[in-house]
Amino acid sequence: GDKTYDKPGDCPVCGMDLVEEQSLSATSAEQYTCPMHPEIVEEEPGSCPICGMD
Questions:
Q1: How many CB atoms lie under 10 A from the CB of residue 34?
Q2: Which of 15, 37, 48, 51 has the fewest CB atoms within 10 Å, counting from its CB?
Q3: Confidence of residue 15 (pLDDT cuts 50, 70, 90)
């Protein structure tokens, strides 16, 4: 199972710093982000332009 971490720290999988998820209530459009590349944010579902993941 996947675990949710609610504190800052290092990811147990890749060791990257964990970042708090920001709820973007200022925008009405839903946003989709790549789990491998969270800097990629799109307003509709699709594939990551970097790695092709959904």
A1: 19
A2: 15
A3: confident
